[in-house]
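Hello,

Our lab assistant flagged a job as stuck in the queue for most of the afternoon. It eventually completed. Since we weren't sure the result was trustworthy after the delay, we are filing this so someone can double-check. Below is the sequence as submitted and the structure that was eventually returned. Let us know if re-running is recommended.
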Amino acid sequence: MTAAQYWTIPEKMIDPFAAHANLLNACQQMEQLLPCQVQFVHIKGHQDNGYPMVLTQLAWLNIKVDLAAKAHIDMLQKGKAAYQILNEAWLLEIKG
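-- returned structure --
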């Protein structure tokens, strides 16, 4: 059973007042649009805070995505164009 099928069972519907309901709903909608099976995996956030540690590949990907999201929000707030450089931890920013 796919997640979309699971989530469409009436007793398994996403409570709109539950934590992260908007994110779960977006995942459900994306899965229905994709022509392949999807497996959702929860990645604990903020693993890059504190002392250095060994992290999984998914944890590192989560850190990179967080940085890109923060840069995008910053760009929108400042009215700048910023582009993530592939496989780099920095951005190209165009002011103007």
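-- support follow-up --
The delay was a queue issue, not a problem with the job. The result is valid. Residues 57-94 form one domain. The radius of gyration is 17 Å.
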